[in-house]
Amino acid sequence: MVFKAQNQKIPKTICVIAIICSSLILSYIPFVNLPKSFAQASSSDLSATQKSASTDRTCVSASTSIRLKGTPQQTEGPYFVDGMPDRSDIRSDPSDSTIQQGTPLHLIIHVFDVDNGSCIPLKGARVDIWHANSQGIYSAVNDLGTTGKKFLRGYQLTDNNGTVRFTTIYPGWYEGRTIHIHDKVRTFNGLEKTMEWTSQIYFDNSINQQVHTKLPYSNHGPPQTSNEEDGIYTGPSTDGLMQRNSGEELMVHLIKEDHSFLGTFNIVLHSGQPKQ
To answer: Would you say the C-alpha torsion 160, 55, 74, 203 has a positive or negative sign?
Structure first.
């Protein structure tokens, strides 16, 4: 009788184990399905041109007397598309002239080269930015059904002050990522690329939440991932200069202006160009 009672407990034990295993498998699926490009590349994945663009040195800006340090690189992500329009206002789509709706964001990016402790404006550099719309959708992505679209993409060449200006909208969120804007800086000698630096720009969590309480963002719901829950924000830089929390050095400075935002961001890198 004792042997029989023990055998009756075995099926219950098996059921409990099966339930636990099923739960673990189901909880793992969302992470498996995330694009592989969400993962940070290691420094060994970068080309020599990309690696040399990073610096851990600091410099002082002549215009503000503020000390700045080298800006960490982060992964390009799965949605970069080259050959986008040369334009400051990236809200429209050239294919049908539609305008992306959302809270206006005026973004000013200053690009500096480090030279003996001084921040030297890098002029003539190409700065590309790209990001998701209010519903978390990128243009020019076949899997998202936006092939041929170019909204919220574009580039500008830095002026004599190393500055570019973009008019866009506050970015939306998509599954697995916190809210961000991708940015890439390149220099060329004719058609030859001489320098490439790539990273991302982040926003304050509380402002992300506030923006998404309003239309059209509210149609997509509140952001699902905070900065501190984002593996790329909290992870190492791709250039190997930061081992963790590289996103903390990539926060845009935002000022509220009526119904829009003004954002400023500094990029400090090593261009490798001869100093004049």
So the answer is: negative
Q: Kindly indicate the confidence band of residue 23, based on its pLDDT and cuts at 50, 70 and 90.
A: very low
Q: What is the H or E stretch that residue 192 is in?
A: strand 192-202
Q: Which residues pair with 69 in a beta bridge?
A: 58
Which of helix, strand or coil describes residue 240? Answer: coil
φ, ψ of residue 262 to 5 degrees: the values are -110, 120
**Cα 62 to the chain's mean position, in Å?**
28
Q: How far is CA 105 from the centre of its chain?
A: 16
3-state secondary structure the chain: CHHHHHHHHHHHHHHHHHHHHHHHHHHHHHHHHCCHHHCCCCHHHCCHHHHHCCCCCEEEECCCCCEEECCCCCCCCCCCCCCCCECCECCECCCCCCECCCCEEEEEEEEEEEECCEEEECCCCEEEEECCCCCCCCCCCHHHCCCCCCCCEEEEECCCCCEEEEEEECCCCCCCCCCEEEEEEEEEECCEEEEEEEEEEECCHHHHHHHCCCCCHHHCCCCCCCHHHCCCCCCCCCCCCCCCCHHHHCECEEEEECCEEEEEEEEEECCCCCCC
- pLDDT for residue 3 is more than 50: no
Give the tens place of pLDDT for each residue, 235-260. Answer: 999 999 999 999 999 999 999 999 99
What digits encode the pLDDT tens for the residues 105-163?
999 999 999 999 999 999 999 999 999 999 999 999 999 999 999 999 999 999 999 99
Q: What digits encode the pLDDT tens for the residues 224-238? A: 999 999 999 999 999
